[in-house]
Amino acid sequence: MERIETDVLVIGGGSGGLSVAAGAVQMGARVVLLEGHKMGGDCLNYGCVPSKALLAAAAVAHGQGGNAAMGVGPGKNTVSYGKAKDFVASVIDQIAPHDSVERFDGLGVTMIEDYGRFISPTEVQAGERVITARRIVIATGSSPFVPPIPGLSDVPYYTNETIFDLRARPDHLLIIGGGPIGMEMAQAHRRLGSKVTVIEGQQVFAKDDPELAAILVLKLRDEGIEIVEGALAQSVSGTGGDVTVSTSRGEFHGTHLLMAVGRKVNIERLNLEAAGIAFDRSGIKVDAGLRSSNRRVYAIGDVAGALQFTHVAGYHAGVVIRSMLFGLPAKAKSDHIPWATYTDPELAQVGLTEAHAREKYGARLEVARFDFGGSDRAIATGKTTGLIKVMVVKGRPVGASIVGAGAGELIGIWAMALANNLKMSAIAAMVLPYPTMGEINKRVAGAYFSPKLFESPFIRRVVGLVQRFIP
């Protein structure tokens, strides 16, 4: 049995683990990285990257329908589902070298392509090697959760880990789950020519602002996607090419089935008990500094029971690097973490929704709103479906919700505002190129200040006095 001693051991080669490994080794630490599956993790291989590539291909296909209002007629429909998937694969291939074993070898990281399991509080075994580390970072991520629906084990189905390998277009795709993964795949497949039915046991986009979610749901239904809410799946039956999902709202028939009901953390291989690490179904229990009950061991990203987004794992990596390498106090926060669903229109959120803000702040809350239809750029490009809401307390934003074109980009300014405790006046003071969609952020800040300026008797008296007495 080979024994290896190191400063930092990283278990998991996804976004968070790679960020820790790259940062630590370049700052002079000895680093070992374990990855038993694919470098780049879920995001590169099955999540963010392939889904956005497929949505991009679907957007081009959707554009072939033309736009009568702009004087553009429909083009010849030449969509190839298989070639769209080839494009997805090519995108992964272009990004993969950045996350590759070869790159991290070159940085000086000791790469071990195997899974790891704890055999003591300070030791991890990976194949025929035992690694002892001063600090250990668990970054094993999450996998698709497949619920024990009666009959499901006897019926072919896809998850986000397998749907991108499918090369023949589904005639009718049934999707169980109305979260971001399910809804992105619903629109992508509809635009690529499939009939699509989304079956959701509760409410689609349940974590987002319901007013904004309703705008998006209407748009998706207008594109021909059947969305059935409050339909809890009770059983699944059929064979490949003929699938039936029985729900509390009736039966739904299709040719293919995609399971998109959520994620489960990847901890089953780790033997956490041997290391004295506390955990539950949601993940490893960590403190504000992302340390586990074993003080040598940190957990970051999905496995830490946090918001399950790639950018959260990257943020967590920075937190633990400050703690491990420099001994500085570092705590992870979540109130400034944004998220986005990349449908068309996009749906994005940071901080508190209106409902949560009202619950927390009551009468102190002010909500500024601006409709995309008031944006000159949105009008010029025919993208007027959208709304932004900013929740404000004592002049500072505590949350922002956006639905509309580019919402995932627009939310960034509000994430910065929350991270740096900025006031609404800082947003209003921006000068932006005209015409841009980014002006929407400035316009909603203006909507916040307008009543205070234009409807204030005090302001009117001041202006009147200045006009009368100051030459």
From TrEMBL:
Cysteine pairs bridged by disulfides in the record: C43-C48
Cofactor: FAD
UniProt KW keywords: Disulfide bond, FAD, Flavoprotein, NAD, NADP, Nucleotide-binding, Oxidoreductase, Redox-active center
An example molecular function term from Gene Ontology annotations: flavin adenine dinucleotide binding
InterPro entries: FAD/NAD-bd_sf (IPR036188), FAD/NAD-binding_dom (IPR023753), FAD/NAD-linked_Rdtase_dimer_sf (IPR016156), Pyr_nuc-diS_OxRdtase (IPR001100), Pyr_nucl-diS_OxRdtase_dimer (IPR004099), Pyr_OxRdtase_I_AS (IPR012999)
UniProt xrefs under PROSITE patterns: PYRIDINE_REDOX_1
Residues that hold FAD according to the record: K52, G116, T140, G141, S142, D302
Keyword Zinc-finger: no
Domain Pyridine nucleotide-disulphide oxidoreductase dimerisation stretches: 337-440
Enzyme Commission number: 1.16.1.1
Cofactor note: Binds 1 FAD per subunit.
Domain of life of the native organism: Bacteria
One Pfam family linked to the record: Pyr_redox_dim
Residues where NAD(+) binds: G177, G178, G179, P180, I181, G182, M183, E184, E200, G262
Protein family per UniProt: Belongs to the class-I pyridine nucleotide-disulfide oxidoreductase family.
PANTHER family membership: MERCURIC REDUCTASE
Protein name according to UniProt: Mercuric reductase MerA
Source lineage: Bacteria, Pseudomonadati, Pseudomonadota, Alphaproteobacteria, Rhodobacterales
Gene for this chain: merA
